[in-house]
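> example.struct
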């Protein structure tokens, strides 16, 4: 593994549930009845040709991966495209099938799947550096071919999802391999078809594994397996709710109340939802062709 001029990761996260004790959180999540269906109305913010992923920016805008041009776009709340970076290629700052984007607000990380690396950019989308996940070729367990997602913890360690071997690999801020977990040797905590990573709080990493949400500590120990109503394409959370997406439906669960179930929402969105997130009570949903926001706060 090698890393080049990586900036220091910052300490704010868009994917964490803060302030909830871990044991209480797991007890609340394990209760999983499905309640009646409700409706939620969305309005489009911006349109795309082939969107892949999005996250929030420090300017309260959005970073979106546009698959057709292999670019990162910064979009404001009115849908204006104010900055762009990247493009197709193999040189630094370019992408070949970017699969995920994560921001701790001052630094933006893009999982560059077919180039076997995670690239970092500043808030203005200027290139900073790369963590190369594969150097020597096939067969080295310390390397990852075709990474599919990545998040960074408070210490600057990288947690990278290995799409070929169904595991999570952890690297330090300098690109050295630390450990892996979620593989076939972990019994019930083995990953079958992992999709996305999620930080529940500052000490728990969860993996969306089809119709399960599997939680691990940062040392790779399995903590909890939460059954989901169906196979989710995306999941997000705040201090009080979890949101999941399946097809063009959304599911919400109040995690502050013991015994609360999943509520299914029919959305006025005619495409499959790729990514869902929530901020200040507003739900944001990304499809291949548009980014939407909820009209009413949730």
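> example.seq
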């Amino acid at each position: 593994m090698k890393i080049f001029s990586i900036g220091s990761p910052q300490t704010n996260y868009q994917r964490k549930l803060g302030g909830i004790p871990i044991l209480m959180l797991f007890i609340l999540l394990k209760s999983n009845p499905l309640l009646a269906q409700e409706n939620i109305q969305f309005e489009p913010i911006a349109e795309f040709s082939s969107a892949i992923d999005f996250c929030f920016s420090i300017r309260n805008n959005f970073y979106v991966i546009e698959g057709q041009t292999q670019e990162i776009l910064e979009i404001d709340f009115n849908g204006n495209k104010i900055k762009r970076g990247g493009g197709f290629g193999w040189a630094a700052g370019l992408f070949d099938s970017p699969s995920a984007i994560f921001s701790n607000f001052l630094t933006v990380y893009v999982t560059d799947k077919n180039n076997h690396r995670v690239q970092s950019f500043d808030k203005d989308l200027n290139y900073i550096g790369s963590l190369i996940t594969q150097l020597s070729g096939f067969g080295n367990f310390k390397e990852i071919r075709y990474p599919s997602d990545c998040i960074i913890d408070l210490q600057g360690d990288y947690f990278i999802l290995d799409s070929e071997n169904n595991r999570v690999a952890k690297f330090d801020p300098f690109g050295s391999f630390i450990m892996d977990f979620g593989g076939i040797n972990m019994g019930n905590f083995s990953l079958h078809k992992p999709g996305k990573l999620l930080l529940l709080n500052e000490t728990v990493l969860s993996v969306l594994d089809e119709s399960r949400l599997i939680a691990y500590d940062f040392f790779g120990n399995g903590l909890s397996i939460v059954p989901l109503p169906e196979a989710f394409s995306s999941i997000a959370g705040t201090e009080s709710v979890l949101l999941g997406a399946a097809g063009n439906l959304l599911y919400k669960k109040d995690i502050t109340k013991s015994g609360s179930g999943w509520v299914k929402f029919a959305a006025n969105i005619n495409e499959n939802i790729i990514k869902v997130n929530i901020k200040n009570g507003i739900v944001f949903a990304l499809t291949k062709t548009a980014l939407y926001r909820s009209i009413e706060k949730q």
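> remarks
The first strand starts at residue 2 and ends at 4.
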